[in-house]
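Collaborator request, handled under Task 6.
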Amino acid sequence: MGDLKYRVPSQDDTLDGISIGIPTNTFPNDIQQYVLDTFEEALSTLSKAGARIVKNANYAGIDEYNRLLTRFSGIVLGGGFKRDIIPYLSSLKHNPRNLYNIDDLLAAAKKSPIESKHGFARWEKSANTEIDSDEYQAALKWFHYLAGEGGLIGALETYNLDLVATPTVAGMCLHSGSMGGYPNITVPLGWYPENTEITMGKGQAYKPLIEIGPGVP
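Structure tokens returned to the collaborator:
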């Protein structure tokens, strides 16, 4: 391998002309003060480097997001998986179990004691999603709105921004970018202090894991 080439930042590097929006209405209500304080320190550093920080560059679709996330997000993801897994499986050069669609995958997984430990609720929801149904089309329309004018793109255009920044825990900000296929970059800002109360993960897959606690990034 050849030597890696990169440019070492110098003290002359600035962020002059870069506008960074902060969609504060995407911050969850239970966000910890330590996270907010650390985030503000990072924004101060960016500002000193020349960036224009635009507070309250909010997402117009936040109410729609909060109201319909539970109902619609699984439908869109499940329907997309059900549709897209077919050409993927068909493209495999080796498919010894003859798996060609979500139903084949679900049947094979249910025969595995290891897979059965995790449950199949999401897979079954995906298998039962009809992408030609009115419900799926409504969910897809909602998805596109939150990716566009109701979310990231709307904020960029309304506030004349180059990018947005939030703490990583801000749900809609992260989701809106991924919904539209736009890049999300997570930058470590340290770790929770020693006196942080431990919070376990939410949902079946995350309950055994520590979400927040001393030393957690």
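The cover message to the collaborator said: "The radius of gyration is 21 Å. The chain has a mean pLDDT of 86. Please let us know whether this matches your experimental observations."
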